[in-house]
Amino acid sequence: MSKEPILFKHLAVxxxxxxxxxxxxxxxxxxxxxxxxxxxxxxTKEVSDSGLRGRGGAGFPTGRKWSFIPKGVLxxxxxxxxxxxxxxAFKDRELMERNPHQLLExxxxxxxxxxxxxxxxxxxxxxxxxxxILDAALAExxxxxxxxxxxxxxxxxxxIVVHRGAGxxxxxxxxxxxxxxxxxxxFPRLRPPFPAVKGLYGQPTVINNVETLANVPHIxxxxxxxxxxxxxxxxxxxxxxxxxxxxxxxxxxxxEMGTPFRVLLEEKAGGMLPGKTLKAYIPGGASAPMLxxxxxxxxxxxxxxxxxxxxxxxxSASFILIPEDVCIIYAQLRISEFFAHESCGKCIPxxxxxxxxxxxxxxxxxxxxxxxxxxxxxxxxxxILGRSFCALGDFSTSNxxxxxxxxxxxxxxxxxxxxxxxxxxxxxxx
Amino acid sequence: xxxxxNITVDGLKMQVPKGTLLWEACQAHGIDIxxxxxxxxxxxxxxxxxxxxxxxxxxxxxxxxxxxPVTDGMVVRTRSxxxxxxxxxxxxxxxxxxxxxxPICDRGGECPLQDQTFAYGPGSSxxxxxxxxxxxxxxxxxxxxxDRERCVLCWRCVxxxxxxxxxxxxxxxxxxDHTVVGTFQDEPYVSNxxxxxxxxxxxxxxxxRKQRFNFRPWELQNRPSICPHCAFGCNINISVRKNDEVIxxxxxxNPEVDDSWLCDRGRFDFEFINSPQRLTAPLVRDGDAFLxxxxxxxxxLISNRLRSILDESGAHxxxxxxxxxxxxxxxxxxxxxxxxxxxxxxxDHTPRPNLRLTPGQQQAFARLGRNLxxxxxxxxxxxILLLGADPSEREPVMELRIRQAVNRHGAQLVIxxxxxITLSPKASHAASYETGGLAAFIRSLTSxxxxxxxxxxxxxxxxxxxxxxxxxxxxxxxxxxxxxxTLDKGDAVLALDDFVEALRARAAVGTLPLLDAANxxxxxxxxxxxxxxxxxxxxxxxxxxxSQVRAAILAGADLAAGAGExxxxxxxxxxxxxxxxxxxxxxxxxxxxxxxxASFAEQIGTFTNSERRVQRLxxxxxxxxxxxxxxEILVDLSQHFDNALPYAGARQIWDDIxxxxxxxxxxxxxxxxxxxxxxxxxxxxxxx
Lengths: 430, 688
Ligand SMILES: Cc1cc2nc3c(=O)[nH]c(=O)nc-3n(C[C@H](O)[C@H](O)[C@H](O)COP(=O)(O)O)c2cc1C
Ligand code: SF4
Ligand code: SF4
Ligand code: FES
Prior knowledge:
The structure holds two protein chains of two kinds.
Chain A: H1 19-24, H2 29-37, H3 40-50, H4 62-67, E1 76-82, H5 91-98, H6 100-113, E2 116-123, H7 128-143, E3 159-164, H8 174-181, E4 205-209, H9 210-222, H10 224-228, E5 238-244, E6 251-256, H11 261-268, E7 278-282, E8 291-292, H12 295-298, H13 306-309, E9 318-323, H14 328-342, H15 348-365, H16 373-384, H17 391-406, H18 408-417, H19 423-429
Parallel strand pairs in A: 1-2, 1-4, 2-3, 5-9
Antiparallel strand pairs in A: 5-6, 7-8, 7-9
Helix pairs in contact in A: 2-6, 2-9, 3-6, 5-6, 6-9, 14-15, 14-17, 15-16, 15-17, 16-17
Chain B: E1 4-9, E2 12-17, H1 22-28, E3 52-55, E4 63-64, E5 75-77, H2 81-96, H3 112-120, E6 138-139, E7 144-146, H4 156-164, E8 170-173, E9 180-183, H5 195-200, E10 206-208, E11 220-226, E12 235-241, E13 245-251, H6 264-268, H7 271-274, E14 283-286, E15 289-292, H8 295-313, E16 318-323, H9 328-341, E17 347-350, H10 359-370, E18 383-387, H11 391-394, H12 396-409, E19 412-416, E20 429-431, H13 438-450, H14 452-455, H15 461-469, E21 475-480, H16 489-504, E22 509-514, H17 520-525, H18 538-543, E23 551-555, H19 565-573, E24 576-581, H20 586-589, E25 593-596, E26 602-608, E27 613-619, H21 630-638, H22 650-660, E28 677-678, H23 681-687
Parallel strand pairs in B: 1-5, 16-17, 16-23, 18-19, 18-21, 19-20, 21-22, 23-24, 24-25
Antiparallel strand pairs in B: 1-2, 3-4, 3-5, 6-7, 7-10, 8-9, 11-12, 12-13, 14-15, 14-25, 26-27, 27-28
The complex binds flavin mononucleotide, iron/sulfur cluster (2 copies) and FE2/S2 (inorganic) cluster (FES).
């Protein structure tokens, strides 16, 4: 990245996870400025002006989301979505693990903006060690007076509670997350009412992704114009991209929005491992449609707007690479298994449809495919997409449709030959 | 009107109140949209997606009609290719793993899944994978069995237990397509309202263990009636097979009363009607045994013996007690028989509050009985005050109405009771007093009220209660007219009446009594009481040590049941004991003549419930043998006396009731529709 990174700027600073080091590097400056100098609406306005969009996948404008909170209905809550369960996504983990205070400062700032005095960070069930890191950082910040009662003598109190889920992809869906946080089984809730009106414990609530909120201290400190100097008109700022698969250097990279995927793949991740060629990649975790290795798909700028233009979505920018020697049907099976396993069971199309998709793909993969299986798969997707209660159902269809679209021949060959042509390669990956 | 919006559905333009759910709007205009998870009484959950329809301008595909409020200018297509494809798709999903065991399913024939599949579903399935299997059936609790293979996971049972009965006992377990209905840690599902989930279940997944495999729905005919088990008066349908066998009771939605719920006592306690033990013919005593006789023989025997007793000892030698579960028509004829045919005023009803009131207390009691509020008015109450009353025990469905008033309409529940009751956890405030201390407790409230706004600033608990909960109306005061646990019931009556008067000076107040039997209110209104009203009991006159009574007619009054030796001895001593009954009860065993009576399901007539709503009974099944309605028995018996009663039918008796009881005067028999007619307060006041 030509410009200085925003979120990963201090990644290399030793002990940046310690309060003292964080403060030395300008940490909590934004928070001090806001609570002593700015009205809550000023913070919201700055964030609105910055054009920051939700990094949890949907890209909803963050400032606008905050402005939906009705005035005078108290208490309000801020909930941080740190469930990060999308296959291929591991960016929030690194943000929290390496620089916890950056998130905490962002949480306190955002809470201030919406008049919230008790915020929750909902981390996924497997993130026990992350919870420990956050709790340690919180303890330091409370002790240092950066969080807690009357911070910076402003009269503003903010308490942050870290809560660990029990391990379910659906609990990353914001309303199911609220159910889970309240102690119930995580089921998505009927909308309206929207969380901004009736969310956690029936109170106005904002739910934001970890990366979204980690940007806020920087926006408040340096201003919205500065933030807009990064990225594109519609996608200002940077994006942490997770890249996994047979590349030289898999991992997280912070890129300016608009950087082509080719830069991520070839420069940042160092290209494919020797002997591996790219067959297809998924740009936004298991729920985003895969794209085959064609120049027009490799040169896509990483933004909210450019991926939809080529029939996919950036989502959480979790890039999963599928090499030539992996059977697409096998890769699809893994994805379909994931959705069938994670469907919450609330609505019929997803509950019944995802296992049906999985079983059908599995039959094809095992060489028991039938001639009409491909139209069947597409029609099942048609009956799920836009019919299910929440987006999980929709997500389950995107790669079936894309893999059949781009790799029809591979499916056909499985069905015709009654076997997987990749049998040995599949075994090697599995 | 500005709160109406215009929408177009399938080309039909309609005006509906803003905010109405699209499904309800369509339903009201005769447009059917398939549903499973939605239920008018439970509200939307949006889980099943069966109700998908096309809306012009939709961006994310078809929308669920059950959870979408109408907006002005909405253009909806429920049968367009897009809508039909969506509906077919969902029904195909629903049937993937369905066992299709319709031929042995209790629901087959009245199953929404069958009906909707027929109307909206695909003709065949494309599913070639093995179906999901579950152990079946599972015993969910003492009353309910569950077939998980048939379940469509509509959440209705779960929501009923979570939101209506609030025992939260039925839950969903596991995730995705492993999701099943069950109970937390497999604890048995025990509830006073369990039967409702059977009716709510849109498939044959939940069945009543008592009724499984007992019938096929198409053999049944549903006939409207009223539950005979308590004074709340829930509306029911009696499902009848081959015109003579009662198979089950179903709820029959009356939003004014039951709002479509029944308690398990009401729903499941019907087998007595079909019982082979029912009395089918008149019996007369022959030594230790009974002989079957004709009605004429029985009537001649009774009239001869009765006449000679009356000739020898006068009218006060005869007493009559009627069951408060008899119809208004039965009770009225009973009273007229006693008063006008044989000339005795010694009548009473049972069960009844065991009150011995002074004249002043009687007036107070009458006043209390006048200020009744409608049951549905609980929804408008700001505070619901239960004074020594436990609706869950006495009129169980009232418990659900109270929960609804609290949950949906924001009423505050205040409970005063010496003990914890079922509703206690629901209370905003629970006050306790020592057993027997109801009157003193009420008086403490009254004096706090009378101290006025300043005086109630005191920090004693009564003042705090008055300040917090009784400052504003409407206030619903629910009391138990039997004053259980109170020794000086007359004193409690005075205290309560005084309290209500004091409250009325401040706020709108309505009262509801908890009563003993299905037609207790009718028995009170028709004055089936001794000449001095509530100050004595004919039961005492009949059974007391120096009783003058030599003959008794007991209509459904089983005085001997569980009674002591003295009572049995007294009943045995009577020169003539005539019993009208359904069964050979302990009292009937002591009788000289036993007359077989029709049950509530076997006659035309009316009940008056505890909010003073008159509701109709119909003849759902014929009475066994030659049994007949209580009033018919007495009318026929009267033919053997000088002043024969002229009635030929229930309607005629009703008209006579209207002439006798002014409050009932405005209510024509034919005006009593499926929801009954509530007799308003003012009319009762006029009659007072
Ligand atoms: C099935 C499903 C899973 C999701 N998982 C996550 C997640 O793990 N983390 C996340 O931030 N958002 C997740 N989301 C998106 C959230 O619902 C929500 O849009 C997001 O937290 C909003 O935050 P943002 O506006 O800051 O992006 C998920 C959505 C769905 C439908
Ligand atoms: S689409 Fe339906 S079943 Fe799937 S996760 Fe969402 S609510 Fe649950
Ligand atoms: S058991 Fe019946 S009511 Fe309960 S979820 Fe299943 S289908 Fe619905
Ligand atoms: S009836 Fe509308 S979603 Fe179930």
